Amino acid sequence: MRIHRTLRISFSILIMSLAVWAWGTQTAKAANSVTSFRPVSPEELQMTSEPAAPGAAAIISSCTARSSAMTTPTPVTKIITFESKS
Length: 86
Known about the structure:
Elements lengths: L1 H34 L6 H4 L12 E9 L4 E9 L7
Antiparallel strand pairs: 1-2
């Protein structure tokens, strides 16, 4: 009976350790993907208007982010005028 209890506790500790390890690796991957920004091109820096939205202070466009696991569209906010920053 004592051996059965010891095995059950050891197994529980092993399962919890694996769960914490798996959660930690997923959290680290998410943190890395959040902090990695794509570089801004010189054309984007000089953008003062958008033909599809004349007079807009800012636009939301879609950028395709590629990772080793999947490709997902990510919304990107582009601020065109200084007034839209506030």
